Amino acid sequence: MLIVSACSNDEEKTSTKEKEPIQVKEEPVAVEVEESVSFPLTGLEADEQELTQRPVAVMINNHPSARPQSGLYKADVVYEVLAEGNITRFLAVFQSEIPDIIGPVRSARDYYIDLSKGFNSLYVSHGWSPDAKEMLEAGEADYINGLFYDGTLFWRADHRKAPHNSYISKENILKGADKLGYEVTAEVEPFEFLSKEDVENVQGEALNKFVIKYDNSATWQATYEYNQAEQVYTRYSGDEQSIDLESGEPVTLANVFVVEMEHRIIDDYGRRGLNLTSGGNAILLQNGTKQEIQWENHDGRIVPVKDGEVVKLAPGRTWINIVPDLTKSFISQSQN
For residue 268, how many other CB atoms are within 10 A of its CB? Predict the structure, then answer.
C-alpha cells in the first residue's frame, strides 16, 4: 500500500507539472500605418497614391462679358494680374483637378508665362502679345495656343461673342499635349502647409471682408468675404459672386495673398511689364485674419515670407492678387 501510495503521489505530481501553462514570449508585431497623401498645391488629402499630374496653367478672361467663367473654381492657384487698362486676367493653375470645361481662354502675356514656369506648367492660351510669342516660340514653356487649334482643340461657345467665347476641355488639353509631344506627368514641388491646429491659431488682425481695387469702378474690383462656418473665403467681381457657369459652384479659397509689385507700361498698346523678382510688401489672409508680410520669388513662385521664413499656407485653394500699390488697392471693409 505504501508503494502504491508513493507511485500515486509521483503520478499526481507529474500530471500537475504537465498541466502548467507554457509561457511563450510574444514578439511585437509591426503594424504598417498607411500614410495619407496630399495634393502638392492645396495640401488637401488625395485619393491617389501617386500625384504626378503635371500642372496646367490656363489664361482665363475676366471681362464682364466673360463672367461667370467655367472651371475656375477648381484651380489650385490663381494669379489675378492686370493686363491692359484696368482689366485683370487670371492665370489658373490646375493640378489636383482639371475641369471638363475651362474658359473663356484669352491671350498670353510674358509675365503670365513666367508665373506659369514656377510650376513647370503646360501653358494654355488663345493668342499672344509680341513678347509672349517670342518667349513661347523660343521654347521657354510647353504651350497650346488657340490661334493654331481654333475649331479643333478649342471651340467657340454660341452663348458669348468673340473674344469672350473660346473654351478648351481636359480631354482636348491631353490630346494637344500628346499631339505636340509634351509630358503630362511630373514631380510637383509642394507648398508648405499649416496643420489644422495651426490654422486655427493663425495670428493677425481679425478681418472678414476686404476689397482689392484695380479701378474706382466696382466692375474691376474683387471683394472677398470670410465664411466662418465653412472656414473659406468667397469672391465677388463687382456685386456678383464668382461661381462656375455650368455647375453654379462658388469659388472658395483658404488663402488670399495680395502682392505689391512694380508695374510699368511698355508699349503704345498699354501692355505692361512687371517686376516679378524684387520681392516687396504683401498681405496674407487666412482663417479670417490679416497678416502684413513680404513676398519673394522662389524658383518662379511668388511666396509669402515673414522674418526671412516662408509663411505656410492653409490647406485649400489660393488666390494671388498682384497690384501696383497696396495702399491704394487693399481696402478693409469690416472686422470680426
Answer: 6
